[in-house]
Amino acid sequence: QQQVKQSPQSLIVQKGGISIINCAYENTAFDYFPWYQQFPGKGPALLIAIRPDVSEKKEGRFTISFNKSAKQFSLHIMDSQPGDSATYFCAASVTDSWGKLQFGAGTQVVVTP
Amino acid sequence: EPEVTQTPSHQVTQMGQEVILRCVPISNHLYFYWYRQILGQKVEFLVSFYNNEISEKSEIFDDQFSVERPDGSNFTLKIRSTKLEDSAMYFCAKSSGRGNEKLFFGSGTQLSVL
Fold first, then answer.
1. Which tens digits make up the pLDDT trace of A17-71?
2. Residues A94, A98, A99, A104, CA torsion sign
3. How many CB pairs under 8 A join A and B?
4. Which candidate from A46, A105, A106 shows the least CB-CB separation from B103?
5. How many CA atoms lie within 13 A of B68 on its CB side?
6. Of B103, B93, B94, which is closest to residue B36 (Cα–Cα)?
């Protein structure tokens, strides 16, 4: 059972462009939606997170858009930089679920100079 | 937040052998987790641990797996009899409290079962 579906699998974007990654979830009990960034050989690092009471959250060049009725959320990376080249995972969890995050399959983003 | 330190970074073992993966040292943290990532696949929850007890575990975390915090700081994951399919990157994670889902992951231990 794939509770969080992520697309695309991979993405190539030019420096300065916008990277968009989409996720959809099934469990309506989910109430916490983080995005993690992972570089090769490293563990996932929390990038930005949102709760369903807001439709958008922005931190620097990173924005989460959230559509509760459609059960979808997305990550936008504005002005993409080569240093943003990494694998991005969306995730979802239920508050008080003891840290049990359900991860998406990941999107490998490559930003070309 | 301080980093989560894991040792070893890479471990090779023979099928059927026991392995112990460690988070070390961790102090003043109460909530710990193990996740794993098979090569090229998504990160999967294994177990959460609070107050020296398992809080929640996934279907992956069967009787071959165990966790403990033997000396109050190190947090370990033991696999009793490794199988080929246990080959994966294992991540330890921590959070500052229940209901605080902000998890901080270590760099992982790459386990290779031959």
1. 999 999 999 999 999 999 999 998 889 999 999 999 999 999 999 999 999 999 9
2. negative
3. 66
4. A46
5. 6
6. B93
What confidence tens digit (pLDDT) does each residue in B67-111 have?
A: 988 777 788 999 999 999 999 999 999 887 665 567 889 999 999
Which among A100, A107, A108 is the top mutation candidate for probing chain B, defined by the most B β-carbons within 10 Å of its own β-carbon? A100
CA distance A104 to B74: 29
DSSP chain B: -PPPPEE-SEEEE-TT--EEEEE----S--EEEEEEE-TTS-EEEEEEEETTEEEEE-TT--TTEEEE-TTSS-EEEEESS--GGG-EEEEEEEESBTTB---EE---EEEEE-
The whole-angstrom separation of Cα B29 and Cα A43 is 18
Instruction: Please tell me what DSSP assigns to residue A79.
Output: S
Alpha carbon of B109 to those of A44, A73, A91, A112, B32: distances in Å? Answer: 13, 31, 22, 30, 16
How close B90 comes to chain A (CA, Å)?
Answer: 9
- Rounded to the nearest angstrom, the gap between the alpha carbon of residue A28 and the centroid of all alpha carbons in its chain is 18
- Three-class SS of residue A83? helix
User: What token pair was written down for B112?
Assistant: 């290779």
Nearest by Cα to B80 from B17, B4, B5: B17
